[in-house]
Amino acid sequence: MTDAFKFELVSPERLLLSGEVEQVLVPGSEGDMTVLAYHAPLLTTLRPGLLDIGLPGGEHRRFFIRGGFAEIGPAGLTVLAETAIDLTELEAGQLAQAVKDAEEDVADASEDAVRDRAQTKLDQLRQVQATLNL
Q1: Could you tell me if 72 and 101 lie in one domain?
Q2: Among 19, 53, 59, 84, which residue has the least CB neighbours within 10 Å?
Q3: What's the rounded Cα separation, in Å, for the pair 84 and 94?
Q4: In a 3-state reduction of DSSP, which class is residue 124?
């Protein structure tokens, strides 16, 4: 049995999940990482992706997240996400709209650096679409 730790998922609208968890797969900007109890302190920005939360008893909750950051500390893990949608509520149309918005951002970018950031975001969203088969 894995040790549980405190976890909170917060979006600008509300607290989405708060409680004890066994593990959380976090889509960090530098790559995916699995957070377990007693993880070293860390602060990372998030990329668009799937947040997979392992609850005690083997149940999992999954969220599509975009933007924000994750903070791991002695008190546990807090994920502050700009967008967080429970996969049980995610509609293909929402993700398709996010992809369309990102495509427009790439097309409208007048500077290379802005275009590169928009293209990276678009690539990540398309990867999430492919992962979810949407």
Answers
A1: no
A2: 59
A3: 12
A4: helix
List pLDDT tens digits, range 36-67. Answer: 999 999 999 998 888 999 999 999 999 988 88
3-state DSSP assignment of residue 60: strand
Give yes or no for a contact between 26 and 32, defined as CB atoms under 8 angstroms apart: yes
Res 131 pLDDT > 80: no
- Indicate whether 28 and 75 sit together in one domain: yes
Output b/e per residue, 62-74; b: 16+ Cβ within 10 A.
Answer: bbbbbbbbbebee
Q: Given the structure tokens 């049980």, which residue do they identify?
A: 88
Q: 107 burial class (0-12, 13-18, 19+ CB within 10 angstroms)?
A: exposed
Q: Where are the beta strands (DSSP E) in the chain?
A: 5-10, 15-21, 23-28, 31-35, 42-45, 49-54, 60-73, 76-86
CA nearest to 69, candidates 106, 127, 118, 30: 30
Do 82 and 121 reside in the same domain of the chain?
no
